[in-house]
Amino acid sequence: MNQDDLKKQVAQAAKEEVLKRMPKGQYLGIGTGSTANWFIDLLAPHRDHFAGVVSSSLASTERLIKLGFHVVDASQLPESIQTQSHPLPMYVDGADEINPQGHMIKGGGGALTREKIIASLAKEFICICDESKQVNTLGKFPLPLEVIPLAQAAITQSLKQWGGTAKLRLISSGKQEGQPFLTDNGAWILDVHGLDIKDPVQLERDLNQIAGVICVGLFAQAKADLLLVGGQQGVQRVQFSK
Ligand code: 5RP
């Protein structure tokens, strides 16, 4: 199986997991990226199982709407649900890297801020990925930071104290090739290379303190609760301790 087959396989397992464990009539959080896209496509025939879905990007929202899902803005959930500490029972999303503790790097698709917001609304984060995303130490994949554009230079300078080299993410094809990649929030992404992330929880805390950083693509203070990982031998289920 190639990587795309593995993503489809794990998305199928996630679909079964969600339909088995989520009673009918609730709201589901759905992420962004190619693995999340498989999940959306496979879940589409079951859209009426859910009162609605909350999406972490404009791209996922567009796909969900085309497939007939009822997409609800995170701040427009019914009041009886909105006031709960976790309005969503589950959030299903991919990752760029995940370590044995369930800490992740996310944001390869640029949707990290909304992903972190929707994940924070969910009782359980179900990470779905293929086995190439499993690592012992995070940081080989450049860490995405969503930043306020005018703070770019100062943030780049500041990151040097952790050994990080920041590269502004640019649009890689089309008419706007070479222009800064704009997030759904109208901000920029810095991809930070060279970090050796020994303590993801502390680093996430530290980087969150830099003025102008909107969101750090480390999901460590709040990590995955369950990992479904697709490999050549099938889908493995890894439950993380709180
Ligand atoms: C998007 C993300 C994605 O979950 C991450 O990039 C993994 O993507 P893919 O499923 O395409 O490998 O964080 O911002």
UniProtKB/TrEMBL annotation:
Classification via Pfam families: Rib_5-P_isom_A (PF06026)
Residues at the catalytic site: E115 (proton acceptor)
An annotated GO cellular component: cytosol
Keywords recorded for this protein, A-Z: Isomerase
UniProt catalytic activity: aldehydo-D-ribose 5-phosphate = D-ribulose 5-phosphate
Gene Ontology molecular function, alphabetical: ribose-5-phosphate isomerase activity
Gene3D superfamilies reported in the protein's UniProt record: 3.30.70.260, 3.40.50.1360
Protein EC: 5.3.1.6
Biological process, per Gene Ontology: D-ribose metabolic process; pentose-phosphate shunt, non-oxidative branch
Pathway given in the UniProt record: Carbohydrate degradation; pentose phosphate pathway; D-ribose 5-phosphate from D-ribulose 5-phosphate (non-oxidative stage): step 1/1
Enzyme class: isomerase
Keyword Isomerase found: yes
Coiled coil region boundaries: none
Segments crossing the lipid bilayer: none
Job of this protein: Catalyzes the reversible conversion of ribose-5-phosphate to ribulose 5-phosphate.
Subunit structure: Homodimer.
Family assignment from sequence similarity: Belongs to the ribose 5-phosphate isomerase family.
UniProt-recorded name of the protein: Ribose-5-phosphate isomerase A
Origin species: Polynucleobacter sp. UK-FUSCHL-C3
Name of the encoding gene: rpiA
